[in-house]
Structures are given as C-alpha cells and as structure tokens.
Amino acid sequence: MDRRRLGTHASVGLLGATLAVALLSDPGVAHAAGLREAGASTVTVPTWLFLTTGGGAVGASFLLASFVTDRVFIRSLHQWRRELPSPGRLVAGIGRLTGVSLLLLTVYVGFTGPSTGLRNFAVVFVWVGWWGGYVASTYLLGNTWPTLNPFRTVADLFPTLDRPYPERLGVWPSVVGLLGLIWIEVITPMADDPRLLASMVVAYTVATVIGAVVFGSEVWFSSVDPISRAFALFGRFAPFKRTAEGITVRLPGMALTDTDLVAGRDEVAFVVCLLYVTTFDGFVATWLWEAFAVGVVGWGVPPLAVYLVAYLAGFGLFLAAFWWAMGLARRYGSTYITREALASRFAPSLVAIAVGYHLAHNLAFVAGLLPTLAVVAAAPLSPPQQPPVLAGLPGWVSGVEMALVLVGHVVAVWVAHAAAYDLLPGRLAAIKSQYGITLVMIGYTMISLWVVTTPLVEPPFISGGGP
Amino acid sequence: MTAGPSPETHIPKDETPVVCPYCGFELPDDEQCRLHLGLEHYGELGEAEREAFKRNYTEEETALNRFRIIALGALVALYFGFLVVYAILAV
User: Fold this and answer.
1) Helix, strand and coil percent figures for chain A, each rounded to 5
2) Of A36, A61, A108, A157, which is most buried, counting CB atoms within 10 Å of its CB?
3) Closest-CA residue in chain A for B91?
4) What are the pLDDT digits (tens) for A357-388?
C-alpha cells in the first residue's frame, strides 16, 4: 500500500513542479541569466530544463545520501569538534562599543547626511555592510551578534523590570516581528531613503529597548527580537561557536543536527518564516509578480492589499508544504512520533537553504557596492558626488550564485538525513521518512533558482523593493 | 539515536502500539521495536533479545540493499535522462 500511496504523492508533487515550471518559463527562450553573457562557451538552455536540473540535483543528493546508512559514521561527522581559547573581555567590550558607535553614526548620518541613497552612509552601511556582508558573516564564520548587538548594549544600561514573559506566546512574537520587518522593507522605500531608514532604526531601537527593559534582555533577545533569533539560527550553520569554555570549531552546517535547536510549532514556524521572507523579497522583483499584481490591481483591488494577501498566503503555503512533508514522514517512517516533534528535528535543515539563498541573493549586490561602502564610510559626512560602483561583474558570478543555492540545498538534504537517522530506529524507515521533505526541497530549489536568475524588475505600485 | 527524552508520540485511535519495556517509547510494530531495543538498550538486553535484534538488523540489510539498487537505478536514469535532454535541447 505504501508504494502506491507514495506513487500518488510523488506524482502530485511532480505534477505541481512541472506545472509551476511550465507557468514560470518564458515561452521558448531561456535565461541562465548572466551565465549566458559569460562568453561563447556557454549554452542556451530552456528555463524549464535549467530549473528541472536544479531540482534533479537535489533529488540526486537525497538518493546519494540514502547510501550512507552507517549510524556511527553519520554521528562522527556531526560530533567532530575542536576547541579554541575564548576571546577576552576586552575584545567583547570593543565589540559592544563598535556596535553602538555604528548605530549612532547610522542614525546621525541618516538624518543629516545627503538624501541620495547611494551617497548616504546609513543606507549603504545598513544594506550593504550589515544586511549583505555582516549577515553573511553570521553563517560563514560565527554569530557575533550577541556581543555586537547595539540594541542589547543600550538596553543593558537600564535596570530591568523583569516582568514575567507570557510563556504561552512562545516565540510567536518573533515570527510576527520578522514578517513585519520584511513587510516594511518590501513596501517602503527604506532601501533608498536615508531619513526613513534612520527613523525606522530609531523606532526599532526604542521598541527593542523598552521590550528588553520590561521583560529582561535574556528572554527578549531569545524569544521576541526577530533579528537576534534569525542570527542565532544562522550562527548554527557557522563553523565557529562561542561556548562557556571557549570557541568550538565544527564542520559547517553540522551544528544544525543538534537536537536542541528547534522545539515546538512556534520555533518551526520561525524557521519556515526565515526561509520564506528571503524568497518573497526576491519574488516581488520578478516579472511574474509584476504581471500578477498589475492584473489584480486592474480589477480594482488596492495594491497594498494585493501585496499583503499574497505575502501572508505565501507564508501559509510554505508552512502547509512543510507540514504536509511531516505527515509523509510520519507515514513512511513507520513511527508514532508526532508531526510537531518530527518538524522540530527536520526544520533546522531549512536553515541551510535560507543560508544558501541569502548568500546567492546578496553576493553580486555586495560585491558591486563594496567600493561605494568603502568610499562613503571613509567620509560619511561629506561623501563624493558619485561614489564608485563596481559595474559589470563577470558572468561567472551568477554561476556561483546558482551553485550557492544548490550547495545550501545539498547541506539541507544531509541535515534532514541525519535527523531521520537520529529519530527512527529503522534505517530503511529513516530513508523513507525523507520522501516528503525531499519533494518540498526540490520545490524550494526550483523556486529560488528561478527567482535568483530571473532578471530583476522594479516591484510595481510601491516605491520600495529593498536590495 | 541519542540518549535523551524520547520524542512525543501520537497513536491513531484504531491501532495498538508496541511499548518499549525500558523507556516506554511507543512503536508501531515488533520489527521497529526490536531495532529500537538494540540501538537504545543493548546493554540491558538478554541473550535472546540481542539475537532477535541482530536478526532484524540483518533482515533490514536485505531490504536496504533492494532500496539501494532502486536508488542507483534512479540516479542512472536521472543522469542519462538529463544527458539526453541536454543533448537534444542545448545546442
């Protein structure tokens, strides 16, 4: 009975994927985007084939991972670690001071500096330096945010009221917070308007400091603050981790297999949300969204409502797909473990996908604007009229971007494999339990590859769009 | 599997679980239970139970091998499938 059911599920999944591909493909011609510009040696491939290849690579990595059934080997890979001495308190102090100084400079220059986005230190620093570059460091090196976090440093200056945090809320406020932050980022011109950006930073600082003072820094930054929570998850991908004894070195992504990373529906929803918001941010800058939004607004629907409904519906869709995959895991994994418990262990694999996607989405952006950041940061109060921009990145950069999306997914497949082996006593059952999540990951891969390689358009009806 | 609290379980109404006598973890059938016993409680098992675990583990190996052959076939099909499609379309 299992096999026939799986057949149905797989065909539903594949049919969905093929339909999506058919809908998303440009008629006939292809864009392996910038890759084609790389030179005469590249080939032109229809979009549907390009996307299916990405999906196929993820499917193949699941099949390859299924050959590794030796529990001892799987565990040894994840438990490999080395210790380094801990940085002193002086370093931590300097880090805190740097964080607060940069926050003050950002707000000051944001309000008083030039009003052109590219010439204003606040805009360039927040989007290129912090959102593009620093966030990448949280998963490539280690999460230094608990030390640098200027909001926390400021909050700790005040005595805390230590009101009890309502436990039943769990980390749901951080899910709402993350959705809210990205919503504001997408619909307002925060990426271009330094005054607006500075006001937002001030508002965020005030809200965060009040929250941390009322409930205590520890609980606020671990349950409510979406930025701290996102960086904490990204930090689990990174090779370096600060512990009580010092700094631990592990293989990249392997800390995602720890059992204590995610617990409960709220935390699962946060991980899915983290993956979703990066996708949505890119999705609104595609021609498909443009066509859809223009069409729906043509019927008289207010543009913001279209954005909001699509935003929330998309999140619901991502959650539903993941939940469906957990249902399959329960059935094919011959286990009575609840969906929620399974989801808590499989969710960390999605962090690897979000990491690959963030890197791919920001690589060319950061590389192109790094000279701008350097020049503007050298003289934040009197930046040059035309800060330099690295124009015309070589064509292979977009190839690297696609490779990064794929690497993220391959690590994700492995993390899911490890989670299954950790949870289920049967080795074959552990492999079968990954059917659903593999199908979902193939779907994510194809969507993100498409978003990354589709030429960017200006999101319709809003002046924002972010980087 | 790791030592630690067992994950939460939920039993469908019309099914009776096999309960692990050592930690109370509920499993859907004897086969999964014997594997669980061997992996989690090997030190506490009697001779007969250890034998049963080893037998089950070996039987699973046969099923795994069958799965591996299918997986290998799927990989080959995927690879050559794409090869052919690329040969036709990417010129």
Assistant:
1) 70, 0, 25
2) A61
3) A43
4) 888 888 888 888 888 888 888 888 888 888 88
Backbone angles phi, psi at A83, to 5 degrees: -110, 140
Residues with pLDDT less than 70, chain A:
1-44, 463-467
Element (H, E) at A82: strand A82-84
Q: Report residue A389 as tokens.
A: 């921009």
DSSP string, A269-322: HHHHHHHHHHHHHHHTTSHHHHHHHHHHHHTT--HHHHHHHHHHHHHHHHHHHH
- Distance, CA of A413 to CA of A419 (rounded, Å): 10
Residue with tokens 């699509």: A310
A33: left (phi over 0), alpha (psi -120 to 50) or beta: left
CB A247 within 8 A of CB A240: yes
Nearest to B75 among A60, A337, A345 (CB): A60
What are the boundaries of each domain within chain B? 18-89
Which sign does the torsion angle of CA A407, A412, A415, A417 carry?
Answer: negative
Partnered with residue A154 across adjacent β-strands are none
Task: Indicate the DSSP class of residue A457.
Answer: -
Predicted structure pTM score: 0.85
| 8 Å CB contact between A289 and A283 | yes
Asked if this assembly's ipTM is beyond 0.90, the reply is no
Q: For residue A242, what are the β-bridge partners? A: A247
What is the spatial distance between Cα B18 and Cα B6, in angstroms, rounded to a whole number? Answer: 15
Please name the residue of chain B whose CA is at the shortest distance from the CA of residue A425: B36
CB contact, 8 Å: A69 with chain B? yes
